[in-house]
Design brief:
The protein is of the alpha/beta class. It contains 17 helices and 20 strands. Strand 17, helix 14 (367-370) and strand 18 (375-378) form a beta-alpha-beta unit. It catalyses: UDP-N-acetyl-alpha-D-muramoyl-L-alanine + D-glutamate + ATP = UDP-N-acetyl-alpha-D-muramoyl-L-alanyl-D-glutamate + ADP + phosphate + H(+).
């Protein structure tokens, strides 16, 4: 980490805690700033706030008082999840107080360069693939950071100029960057998402596109060449553009005759990937672009991608029991993600577990994807809607259940040797679970319990 005096004796407000807020507060404190932390939770219910208080940092909890901004702060570092419509942020904007997210803070003091990965789907898997490939080629060089669970403000403290920060970035984080400049950036794809936060799809796209705002021709921007929107936007970037595609040959990485290629050079067979699904072919091609631009050899890429077993809750291979393969794709919180996961399997030997929070959408677009399924097991608020879609798709066995325990029990009854059980809900988890991770963990626990292994 750079020994920066930039924030020494500056009064800075860290708004919102969780992991990123704690990391930002500690880093600013170490840099000599006068830090005030403000979090909506009450102090007695707020272990993070108590920890910072013990470290000598000023902590204000139980709401966001507007008069707090009368303290003369020169900067606000906000939790990415707090919208700019929050009254305290609206007041800060009127007072012309700069607002950043902690990834910007980390960038400002980092000795290590950044690889930034964003997109609607595939960010975490692509980020993890890149890290593992670099590890295979040069152990201990790559450090995971960002939205993947490792706040960049924590990671930069131990990073040196010999490291590289492989950083997953959300649209929320990117709205709060200023100087941030990744040497390599990836946009895996852009679809409609987070409209409740951004207001419109255009604003969401603008937030994602900010990843390249400070890049120059000496930097590389890697884009999904199958999305006309991104190809069009590429004309607005100063970065050098490299594409990946599953439909055509491009200047970069592409799928050709079942092979993953880079600039006319065969890397590996797509069938050799350690994880199934067309979406993982896309993720792998994006990772190939990043690592080839970084100078990694083909053998290291092939070895790493062949051994890649997935990320927890993202088409994660759980095991094979009496000849039945089991995958956990709890992260498939929308129809598009589930469609991509299902595409990696033979429907006639697939037992799908789906359902969850009802967001008011229909499942008509899901019908072609679930045709010829061996069975579909449905739970949650959407089970009746999904049942209608499954009937239209003429799925021969449709089973509605009340909970994950029953879902796993029925799946294990139906599945035979050479079949696959896949949890890919196509819905959010909040009707039954606090998050998709808890849903996936219960699925894995029930599989383990019921197969007796």
């Amino acid at each position: 980490m750079k020994q920066s005096k930039r924030y020494a004796n500056e009064k800075i407000l860290v708004l919102g805690l969780a992991r990123s807020g704690v990391a930002a507060a500690k880093l600013l404190h170490e840099l000599g700033a006068f830090v005030t932390v403000n979090d909506a939770k009450k102090l007695e219910d707020n272990k993070e706030a108590q920890e910072l208080l013990e470290a000598g940092i000023t902590v204000i909890t139980d709401g966001h008082p507007l008069d707090l901004l009368d303290e003369g702060f020169s900067l606000i570092v906000k939790n990415p999840g707090i919208p700019y419509t929050n009254p305290i942020l609206e007041k800060a904007i009127k007072k012309h107080i700069p607002i950043i997210t902690e990834v910007e803070l980390a960038y400002q003091v980092s000795e290590a360069p950044f690889i930034g990965i964003t997109g609607t789907n595939g960010k975490t898997t692509t980020t993890t693939m890149i890290k593992q490939i670099i590890d295979t080629y040069q152990p201990n060089k790559a450090l995971l950071a960002g939205n993947i669970g490792f706040p960049a403000s924590d990671v930069v403290v131990k990073a040196t100029k010999n490291n590289v920060l492989v950083t997953e970035l959300s649209s929320f984080q990117l709205m709060g960057i200023d100087e941030f400049r990744p040497r390599i950036a990836v946009i895996t794809n852009i679809y409609e998402a987070h409209i409740d936060y951004h207001g419109t799809r255009d604003e969401y796209v603008k937030a994602k596109w900010r990843i390249q705002r400070n890049m120059t021709k000496d930097d590389t921007l890697i884009l999904n060449g199958d999305l006309p929107e991104l190809v069009s936007l590429s004309q607005e970037s100063n970065a050098s553009i490299v594409y990946f595609s599953v439909t055509k040959k491009v200047n970069g990485a592409y799928l050709e005759n079942g092979c993953l290629m880079y600039q006319d050079d065969k890397i590996m067979e797509a069938s050799e990937l350690g994880v199934p699904g067309s979406h993982n072919v896309e993720n792998a091609l994006a990772a190939i672009c990043v690592t080839k631009v970084s100078g990694v050899d083909n053998e290291s890429i092939k070895k790493s991608l062949s051994l890649f077993s997935g990320v927890p809750h993202r088409t994660e291979y759980i095991g094979t029991y009496d000849g039945v393969k089991v995958y956990n794709d709890s992260k498939a919180t929308n129809i598009l993600a589930a469609k991509k996961a299902i595409s990696g399997f033979d429907n006639e030997q697939l037992v799908l577990i789906a359902g969850g929070l009802d967001r008011g959408n229909s499942f008509d677009e899901f019908i072609p994807t679930i045709e010829r399924l061996k069975a579909i097991i449905l739970l949650g608020e959407t089970k009746e809607k999904l049942k209608e879609a499954a009937e239209k798709a003429q799925v021969s066995e449709i089973i509605c259940v009340n909970n994950m325990k029953e879902a796993v029990k029925e799946a294990l009854k139906v599945a035979q040797s050479e079949d696959t059980i896949l949890l890919s809900p196509a819905c959010a988890s909040w009707d039954m679970y606090p998050n998709f991770e808890t849903r996936g963990e219960e699925f894995v626990a029930e599989i383990t319990k019921q197969v007796g292994k």
